[in-house]
Specification:
Length: 334
């Protein structure tokens, strides 16, 4: 006699609806990991036919493609934490996450059920992903124009909030250090959206000064060099505040200011972006825009589940909000 959902529900001591939604990987279902695991185990023990395709040999496999190499990822905890958020949520849903790094794209398995690409990829790379599997999610890259579901950060309100924080301290001469980068294959330039929103906000406040804006790379060394350049070029006219595009750059800028014996935050206040662990462990602690990287990762997996379970013919973008974490790098008053 064939095993039914009712049989599983009785043994698992849950409702028939819960069993159905668990076995269909319904991400909107609020159920404990213990209950979810119990349903899967009983379904497998009873050789439930529909569940067999999700059995141990046929678990959904998700390739998590990191645009960085393993070494680069260690230098940028932001992308590492997004990847970890994806892997954790995959584990909760019973999926197998397969790590693939930028320098190993030729090792991308052909039999994966979906691809979550973290970082900046060119159109040709995204086309390559789609040739392997039609289920593709982009994280930290707007995929609407590329016909891909995506998860991004709310840069607009994040940057505006950082500048408002300076303005509340009567800090109106505000500089910026931002990064430039290319896609993983170096085919396309990727502009920093924070620069766009910084200029937009500063112009709206009628306080934008282009000579206060410096372009580098998203590394500590680049942040160090850009701040040294600012100190050298601007002298006494150095802004009293800087918004910096990520934590590694901010750490480098902090070092340059300390070497020049410029007091932080009394002479120069700093606000960084991403709020990785290093923001809290440097001295003084960096005020930083906290990005919910774990939620970005989980949202990407949820979008993948939605693709598995629906036949929608439009793409979707999830924008995750942020919050500013204030520490010692911003002056309390002025």
């Amino acid at each position: 006699m064939a095993v039914t959902l009712k049989d599983i529900a009785q043994q698992a001591n849950v409702s028939l609806t819960t069993v159905s939604r668990v076995l269909n990987y319904d991400a909107s279902l609020s159920v404990s990991d213990e209950t979810r695991q119990r349903v899967f185990e009983i379904a497998e023990q009873l050789n439930y036919v529909k569940h067999k395709r999700f059995g141990r040999q046929q678990v959904k496999k998700i390739a998590v493609v990191q645009w960085y190499t393993e070494k680069q990822e260690l230098d940028d905890l932001y992308y590492m934490s997004i990847r970890m958020g994806i892997e954790q949520h995959c584990q909760q849903l019973g999926f197998k996450a397969i790590q693939v790094y930028q320098n190993n794209l030729d090792q991308l398995p052909a039999d994966v059920d979906g691809i979550i690409a973290v970082g900046k990829f060119s159109q040709s790379q995204i086309k390559q992903f789609k040739q392997i599997n039609s289920h593709v999610i982009l994280v930290d890259y707007d995929g609407l124009g590329l016909d891909c579901d995506s998860v991004v950060t709310d840069f607009d309100h994040s940057v505006s909030n950082a500048i408002d924080t300076f303005l509340l301290r009567n800090l109106k001469d505000i500089g910026m250090i931002y990064g430039s980068e290319t896609t993983a294959d170096d085919e396309e330039n990727v502009p920093d959206p924070r620069r766009h929103y910084f200029i937009k906000k500063m112009q709206a406040e009628q306080i934008y000064q282009p000579e206060f804006v410096f372009e580098g790379r998203y590394t500590s060394e680049s942040g160090y060099q850009m701040m040294k350049q600012a100190i050298r070029q601007l002298g006494e006219g150095l802004p009293h505040a800087f918004f910096i595009a990520n934590d590694p750059m901010a750490v480098g800028a902090l070092k340059a200011l300390q070497e020049a014996k410029i007091e932080i935050p009394n002479r120069v206040s700093l606000i960084s972006f991403n709020d990785t662990t290093i923001a809290n462990y440097v001295y003084p602690g960096l005020s930083s825009v906290h990005v919910a990287t774990d939620q970005m990762g989980a949202s990407a997996v949820d979008l993948m589940v939605e693709q598995f379970n629906s036949d929608r013919d439009y793409v979707k973008k999830v924008t995750v909000g942020t919050k500013l974490i204030e520490r010692q790098s911003v002056v309390n008053h002025r």
